[in-house]
Structures are given as structure tokens and as C-alpha cells.
């Protein structure tokens, strides 16, 4: 009997499920869990930003609440990571506030308002869902033969309209554009789930792509678990699990000893939701613009850092933002090329 139960396998032929209002509630799962809501923004001015709220129970005492944010563009490349307190949920658990930050979902459950006030960073934007969200099956991959060891859960809004502003070190930027929203839960210690993660968000005028892949630790068979989506002309065409992030070329990082990709081939393959036609996407990218290499242990509180170090994990996150071309083929239609901006992220845990 397998000790991992993958969301795509559990869903069988019904990969697509809608994201319901219940899915957007903060669960604050007990035990060793980490819950995040993350907004990835590609602005009309060609800039990139993300804003994330983290609630983590991995520590020994009270939960750790943290915001992380990046802005890249206009000559600025900044990453902020700040610990917060006074975390509170709304009565319906769909909105969260903490010191200096709030993520508020409207009653219709189709628009978030995100605000953040920090001495070096002020964020204010609305993120409104385009078409619909998705999860693969019920959204969860379970660990343990009886599914009791832990789980990973993802819910996506694969494309949304963004309106608002970000002020970085006193300089204001219009972040009007489009983006991706992800609500994720890791219901066990991160180093037990995966040895690495690959994540991308591609936005262009005609097509949007998402991919989230993790490779389980050897204990769970070093299995790659992948889920992705294709949006064309503001419609969710399909979701897929037969996707891949293939490292075509790598280079050793002498500091971390990880083999970091310099060229990646991303592929998606699935069936369209409306017509059941086969679709495929291919995107090759030479990773030329490295935004950052993040030493995760530098960004977590001291006691949590000691716990993670004791678990012999050395997590590093590499992030790139490049222009890219995606080749999209749907059914018998002629292949088309979407040109846009690609945020790609590779995380190495152990």
C-alpha cells in the first residue's frame, strides 16, 4: 500500500474542482502546519511583486505570523520579511488581520483587498478573480498509508485583475495588472514533505499559466507531484497534472552546494474543461534575470531557526523574472505563441 496519496490520483478523471467559499477559509490546522495566502502580481508597467501572509505552527510555542513581500522593477529589487503579532480572523474565517497587514475577502468571495503598512513598504491593492478558481480533486495530497501523517493542500485563482499601488522606500508604483492567488497549507513539517519545489506564474495578454510541483523526500519515493493551469482569453481552459519542470542546464552554487537551473523546459498536458480537447503547452526559459537567492533560515525567528537546523534542512529559494514565450496547442486549432513575463521559483529544502 502506498504511503502517499496524490491529489491527482485521488481525483481520477475529475481533476477540476471549483474553489468554494469554504476553501478560502483559514484553517489554522493544529500540529506542525504552515498556512499561506500569496498574491503574485505582473503589472502593466512590466514590474513584478508578491505579497504573502504566513501562519506557522512549526515552533514550540505560539504560532509565527509573518509577511513577506517582493517588488522588482523600476530600478528597485527589494525583499521584506517581517514578523507580526495580533493575528485575528473574521467571523467567517475568510479574512485575516495582523499588525500592519490585512487580507480581506468580499462577501461575494471574488475579490481580496490587501493592505500592508511598514516603514519601508506600503501596499494597497484589490485582486479580483477572473473566470473561476480551481483545485485538483479535493485539493489535498496525503502522506502515510492511512493518510494520517500529514497533507499538502493548494487552492488557486489562476488569474485575477489587480488595481492598486505599492510604495517602496518612498517611491510609488502603480501595480495595476494581473496576477495569481494561491492559498496553501502544509499540514506537516516542510522538510518531511519535499526535497524541492518548482513554481511558476506566466502572464501574457492572451494566456496565463501556473505550475506548482514538489518532489517528495526519499521516504515517500522521491515522487514528483505537479498541478497546473491554462487560462486563454480570460477563460480557464483546463487544469493538468501531467506537467513537468525539466532542468536542461544547471550550475553548482558553491555556497549552497545545490545544482541551480540555468535553463528549464516547462510542459503542460491535459484536457480542456468545456470541450474535452487535448491541450499542450511548452515553455523553454533561459534563466537570465535572478531576482534573489533567499536563505530561508535568515528570514525566520531564532527559535524556529534552531528547530529547522536540528532537522538538517538548509532551505534556499531562487527566484527569477524573465520575458518568455509559451507555445500553446488546443485540440485541432493551430498552435499559437503567447509572449509575456515569467516568474519562476525553485526551492531546495534538503
Automatic annotation (TrEMBL):
Record-level GO cellular component terms: cytoplasm
Keyword entries, A-Z: Cytoplasm
Example GO BP: response to oxidative stress
Domain Svf1-like C-terminal: 188-350
UniProt domain Svf1-like N-terminal: residue ranges: 34-186
InterPro entries: Ceramide-binding_SVF1, Svf1-like_C, Svf1-like_N
Superkingdom assignment: Eukaryota
Subcellular location: Cytoplasm
Principal subcellular localisation of the protein: cytoplasm
Matches recorded under PANTHER family: CERAMIDE-BINDING PROTEIN SVF1-RELATED, SVF1-LIKE PROTEIN YDR222W-RELATED
Family of this protein: Belongs to the SVF1 family.
Protein name as it appears in the record: Oxidative stress survival, Svf1-like protein
Organism (species): Glomus cerebriforme
